[in-house]
Sequence to fold (251 residues):
Amino acid sequence: MKGLAGKVAIVTGGGSGLGREDCIELAREGCTIVAVDRDKMGAAATARQVSDNGGTALAIKADVSDATSVQAMVKQVLAVHPRIDILVNNAGVVGEMKRVHEVSEAAWDEVMNVDLKGTFLCSKYVLPTMLNQGRGVIINIASVSGFLASNAAVAYTAAKHGVVGLTKQLAYDYGHDGIRAVGIAPGVIETPLTKDWTCAGGPFHQLTMEAPAGRYGRPIDVARLVCFLASDEADFMQGHTFPIDGGSIIR
Ligand code: NAP
Fold:
């Protein structure tokens, strides 16, 4: 896709599921990859997969919910690469699938810290580099839970609504500096995160099967959208979060 060759792309949560596939597809489009994950082995396995396919990738262990860790990660990237063109804020956890009066404060905090604060922190510490360049793209992986209430955890729904709002604000604040911010809202995609859901009787099975696509999503479905949104072909797309859900939330 136009404008991806030679770009440096950081993908958080790059050691598993959607993040891994994003790394592989962005590399296929010519990007140099930085796979960031708190699971070092996972990030290293992604980097290996990228280089086995002929691409270039660096694996970095970092916790997106920890400012010191995020700052150290950005420093490590800049020590190797002169620029950061694309940031995919993908790391996320779901937490306890409970209602407000049942969920523990610790579980609430964990989801907020990873899903929402992690997106804030990675953006915060990558943005100075993008501002210096006068160019950059931030892609935030929200969820259809960023648009509606469901069986998903209350903290997850709240955090992902926050990610949708943060994406708008990033676009509003940095669009005139040459930086684009967009979001993606996947429906249920088959990854390690959803391995207990994607079966008959799973919490979203009926919703998924009754939707127009009638199937669960695959990581490649999301990764191709990531590539498009990161490319120059999406130059007029700003601030919105785009569902990719087989049509599950159209009614
Ligand atoms: P996944 O397979 O569990 O991968 C997420 C990766 O992020 C894991 O390697 C995880 O490490 C890592 N991670 C978690 N917390 C982190 C932290 N604090 N710092 C750094 N890395 C961290 O999940 P996925 O299905 O690919 O989901 C990726 C993103 O898509 C998430 O934001 C999720 O909310 C969103 N999403 C997924 C679906 C879906 O159906 N799969 C639908 C909508 C939205 P650990 O294994 O150590 O936790």
Observations:
- The chain has one domain: 8-243.
- Strands lie at 8-12, 32-37, 57-61, 86-89, 136-141, 179-186, 241-244.
- The helical segments are 17-28, 40-52, 67-80, 105-133, 154-174, 205-210, 219-230.
